[in-house]
């Protein structure tokens, strides 16, 4: 086992042990922010991808996959994906004194900046304009913004005369609004960000901005894909345990051939998703392996959690049981990561380039 795999395994075990202290297999929604604060303080997860030179842990794809899978398994809320993953990755690619200052703040435990999530391959960016003195202002709406109070700095992919810009908006900037959006996943609140001639600071432009946004998009897809792997695995565990303990006609329901075959198929589905996650870690998180993970993991999570609800019967729909919570996280993460068809097309395009 390589050093990176050993560290990733240790991180996953530490997270599993920490989160295993809850009475239910998932973290209650109301405890999500408190749990995230503890994870940052005790395990330093906010600085997971922040370079060591800026006070962070300096980890890569293997550790990201291990951590995200455990957070997905327990459906932990908090700003991990938009802040510790997307924003930290984008800032690391910028390499300016201001971006370095923000990275050092992330590692030190300051409120996480959050990157406005742009749906995969959409190319959506907020319109921006520059005044004669070079000042930048933003006008438009974009979302969802996956963050939680208190307000934090927002990184916005913007467009100035057809050229990409990565802009930083202060939490109290005039003309900036955050409108709550309905969210299927109650542990992950979402807002729509609106801007009207809102002053912003240019962190990067041109090729640098495009590369920072691209890297953040890849890291976000890896994190959400790994979450889906954790969700699918947990849903399968719950379903197998239920099939062993729930009796009908004097036998465990898992002994009936139809259910046994279904569980076998779900096991294969989960193992394929786990293999895709291992492929990402082996490749260091390149685009090809990321698209593969996004396809296999999102499909696995949706398929397994849907079947889990059905195989649990009525109890699967109750608030007291975590099956429906896992279902919500699966559908939410699958949408945010981009649809499987989008990632297939991107993967085919990469193959054609060869």
Which descriptors apply to this entry?
flavoprotein; oxidoreductase; five-stranded mixed barrel; flavin adenine dinucleotide binding; 16% strand; AcylCoA_DH/oxidase_NM_dom_sf; 354 residues; AcylCo_DH/oxidase_C; Butyryl-CoA Dehydrogenase, subunit A, domain 3; 9 strands; alpha+beta; Butyryl-CoA Dehydrogenase, subunit A, domain 2; Butyryl-Coa Dehydrogenase, subunit A, domain 1
Topology, pairings included?
Layout: H1 3-19, H2 32-43, H3 61-73, H4 80-94, H5 97-108, E1 114-115, E2 126-130, E3 136-145, E4 154-160, E5 163-169, E6 176-181, E7 190-205, H6 206-245, E8 247-248, E9 251-252, H7 257-283, H8 287-312, H9 323-336, H10 340-353
Helix pairs in contact: 1-3, 3-6, 3-7, 4-5, 4-6, 6-7, 6-8, 6-9, 7-8, 8-9, 8-10
Keywords: FAD, Flavoprotein, Oxidoreductase
Cofactor: FAD
Domain Acyl-CoA dehydrogenase/oxidase N-terminal: 34-108
End-to-end Cα distance: 31 Å
The CATH topology name of the largest domain reads: Butyryl-CoA Dehydrogenase, subunit A, domain 3
Number of helices: 10
Query: Regions with pLDDT < 50 over 5+ consecutive residues?
Result: none
Count of distinct strands: 9
Global outline: elongated
Percentage of residues in strands: 15-25%
The number of domains:
3
Q: Provide the gyration radius in Å.
A: 21 Å
Q: SSE order in H/E notation?
A: HHHHHEEEEEEEHEEHHHH
Question: Widest sheet: strand order?
Answer: 2-3-7-5-4
CATH class of the largest domain: Mainly Alpha
Task: Indicate the structural class.
Answer: alpha+beta
CATH hierarchy: architecture of the largest domain: Up-down Bundle
Q: What is the residue-averaged pLDDT?
A: 86
Largest sheet: 5 strands, mixed, barrel
Helix fraction bin: 40-55%
């Amino acid at each position: 086992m390589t050093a990176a795999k050993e560290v990733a395994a240790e991180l996953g075990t530490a997270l599993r042990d920490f989160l295993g202290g809850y009475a239910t297999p998932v973290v209650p929604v109301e405890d999500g922010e408190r749990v995230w604060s503890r994870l940052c303080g005790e395990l330093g997860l906010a600085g997971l991808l922040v370079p060591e030179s800026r006070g962070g842990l300096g980890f890569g794809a293997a550790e990201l996959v291990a951590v995200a899978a455990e957070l997905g398994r327990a459906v932990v809320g908090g700003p991990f994906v938009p802040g510790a993953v997307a924003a930290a990755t984008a800032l690391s690619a910028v390499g300016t004194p201001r971006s370095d200052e923000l990275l050092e703040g992330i590692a030190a435990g300051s409120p996480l900046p959050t990157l406005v999530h742009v749906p995969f391959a959409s190319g959506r960016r907020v319109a921006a304009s520059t005044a004669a003195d070079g000042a930048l202002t933003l006008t438009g709406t974009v979302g969802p913004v996956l963050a939680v109070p208190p307000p934090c700095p927002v990184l916005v992919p913007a467009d100035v005369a057809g050229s990409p810009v990565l802009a930083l908006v202060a939490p109290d900037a005039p003309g900036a609004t955050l409108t709550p959006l309905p969210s299927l996943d109650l542990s992950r609140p979402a807002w729509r960000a609106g801007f009207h001639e809102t002053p912003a600071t240019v962190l990067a432009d041109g090729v640098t901005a495009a590369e920072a946004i691209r890297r953040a998009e890849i890291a976000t897809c890896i994190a959400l894909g790994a979450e889906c792997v954790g969700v699918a695995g947990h849903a399968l565990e719950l379903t197998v345990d239920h099939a062993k303990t729930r009796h009908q006609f004097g036998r465990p329901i898992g002994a009936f051939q139809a259910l046994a075959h279904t569980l076998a198929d779900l096991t294969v589905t989960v193992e394929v998703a786990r293999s895709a996650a291992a492929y990402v870690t082996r490749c260091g998180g390149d685009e090809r392996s990321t698209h593969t993970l996004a396809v296999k993991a999102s499909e696995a999570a949706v398929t397994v959690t849907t079947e889990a609800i059905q195989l649990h019967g009525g109890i699967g729909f109750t608030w007291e049981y975590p099956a429906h919570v896992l279902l919500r996280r699966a559908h939410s993460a699958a949408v945010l990561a981009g649809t499987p068809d989008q990632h297939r097309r991107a993967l085919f395009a990469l193959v054609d380039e060869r």
